[in-house]
Amino acid sequence: TTTPVNVTVTGAAGQIGYALLFRIASGQLLGPDTPVSLRLLEIPQGVKAAEGTAMELDDCAFPLLAGIDIFDDARQGFDGANVALLVGARPRSKGMERGDLLEANGGIFGPQGEAINAGAADDVKVLVVGNPANTNALIAQRHAPDVPAERFTAMTRLDHNRALHQLATKAGVAVNEVERLTIWGNHSATQYPDIFHARVGGRAATDVVDEAWLESEFIPTVAKRGAAIIEARGLSSAASAANAAIDHVHDWVTGTQGEGWTSAAIVSDGSYGVPEGLISSFPVRARDGRWEIVQGLEVNDFSRAKIDASVAELVEERDAVQQLGLV
Ligand code: NAX
């Protein structure tokens, strides 16, 4: 028998949590041979609903689910965590300024980073989903000085998957015939979905679609997809966000295949002119449990301006949380 992997999920009673937990417990996060023990972290008001979800998880009789524990204390929730999915966050309410939003989330992600630092397993891998995801991940990372910085990541995989679908549909090919797309920068409206290195059915994407479509359709559709889902569903993306979180961690743990790549927000080493230390989205491959930035891609003037604009927003967010004393 294998020792179960401890997976901590914050915001477990929320809508992404509800879509995520069953997939983790069924083996889709870590594979069909790896038992998991779930540690659900909620705020006190969320505990009862998390208990209800735990009852349903029990009722699935998942062979790989070794246990479920529910906490409203971060130290306990992250104790022994091998994988930490930070989904719960403070949403922007009406009239809230960006500074208020960053401050409210600093109050969540600072202590969670400290709790990870104090008690998570040595191999802990952290994915921040809760928005503003990149800067929340930065706050958590800065509060965990004993954990290698590279273990803190933020999710742009949903943006990546949205872009794959848009490009595949436009080109009239299956999604698995699209490769080498990149989401750069912040998980926000400034994100830059880059098709200049993408291949569609073995051809250069730029030979298949024209630049007018890229600028007037593709980029805004991908960047505003979250708002379009809210408009249609009356609720924000949940199952697709959970799916992207599964993809991100599954790739991180099991590795990406071949020379293709995916997108993830990881700590910058200065590549592509992104200031060192920022948590920004890059083209990445996973090898031996580590993300590597795909090197040597040519960045044209169009891409340079878009990447710089999104990275400038990340710099502003970092400066704002620095001024607030949150990092
Ligand atoms: P919900 O409001 O349905 O659920 C959030 C849950 O988090 C609630 O149950 C709440 O009690 C809990 N929570 C709040 N503070 C907590 C804390 N300190 N510790 C533990 N739990 C806490 O939101 P949901 O739709 O599930 O979305 C969760 C987050 O994902 C939001 O911040 C949302 O903006 C973000 N998203 C990020 C995406 C990405 O691509 N990175 C896409 C989807 C999503 O919008």
Describe this structure in words.
The protein is an alpha/beta fold and 327 residues long. The chain has helices at 15-25, 47-59, 74-77, 98-119, 133-142, 157-171, 205-208, 211-223, 225-233, 239-254, 301-323; strands at residues 5-10, 36-41, 65-71, 83-86, 125-128, 152-154, 178-179, 182-184, 192-194, 199-200, 203-204, 262-267, 279-287, 290-293. β10 and β11 (203-204) form a beta hairpin. It starts with a strand and ends with a helix. The model has no long low-confidence stretch (mean pLDDT 97). The structure holds ligand NAX. Ligand NAX is lined by residues 10-11, 13-17, 41-43, 46, 87-89, 91, 108, 129-131, 133, 155, 158, 187, 226, 236-238, 241.
Shape: globular
Q: Give the ligands present.
A: ligand NAX
Largest sheet: 6 strands, parallel
Helix count equals 11
Main β-sheet, spatial strand arrangement: 3-2-1-4-5-6
- Average of the residue pLDDT scores: 97
Measured distance between first and last alpha carbons = 42 Å
Radius of gyration: 19 Å
- Which stretches are low in confidence, meaning pLDDT under 50 for 5 or more residues running? none
> Helical proportion?
40-55%
Class inferred from helices and paired strands: alpha/beta
The CATH topology of the largest domain comes to L-2-Hydroxyisocaproate Dehydrogenase, Chain A, domain 2
Q: What is the CATH superfamily of the largest domain?
A: Lactate dehydrogenase/glycoside hydrolase, family 4, C-terminal
The proportion of strand residues reads: 15-25%
Strand tally is 14
What is the element string, with H for helices and E for strands?
EHEHEHEHEHEHEEEEEHHHHEEEH
For the record, the CATH class of the largest domain is Alpha Beta
